[in-house]
Amino acid sequence: MARLPRLTVPGQPHHIIQRGNNRQAIFETRADYELLLELLDENARKQHVALHAYVLMSNHFHLLATPETAEGIPQMMQAVGRRYVRTYNNRHQRTGTLWEGRYRSTLIQADRYLLACMAYIDLNPVRAGMVSDPAQYPWSSHQHYIGLKADKLVTPHPLYWDLGNTPFARDQAYADMVRAGIAQEQQQALTDSALRGWALGEPDYVADLQRRTERRVTRAQAGRPVTRKSA
């Protein structure tokens, strides 16, 4: 089955995943992690994309971002991907592809899933057994949101500001939310939607997206279409 074209809608949050080819490592040194963050910062600003959350794992990375234009995310990801691979290959004396095809992306309904998606992203290193607390992992936006460091790459979404009236209150509320974790059902929905390209949200949200594009935004119902019998 042909892959669906990616759907990008200005002003809407997108959950993005880019994996290494055959799940191979895409980072070998600290300089590699730092390079990708620098490229993301440069190109997110250039393409007017607000990056709300990120995590760089050993063989993949996640982003949560809102573009101002339909071209913002594709152009950002293309520029980042090309420059990163070129530098990575030169640095580590390798050739060939690094990525597992094109990046995966989908839209999520902000008021229903954005904070859950941020927690999902932050908890990746915990699920992978790399750390016991997301605050221990240096290559994510979590430390920014709990007040441990200022990360110039991060642009908080308005829903984050609604967590409290002061920086301390927001930091504490966010830390508590991530510590509580997310339900397995939400975790699976966030993974499946990003990998398969289906919009994630309530029926009214999905229906509104479908009115904006000819591209299907949800899985087609199973079975043959119903046909009317002749009299």
Automatic annotation (TrEMBL):
GO molecular function: DNA binding; transposase activity
One protein family per Pfam: Y1_Tnp
GO terms classed as biological process: DNA transposition
Top-level taxon in the UniProt lineage: Bacteria
Record-annotated Transposase IS200-like domain positions: 9-124
NCBIfam families xrefs: REP_Tyr_transpos
Name used for this protein in its record: Transposase
Species this chain originates from: Ramlibacter agri
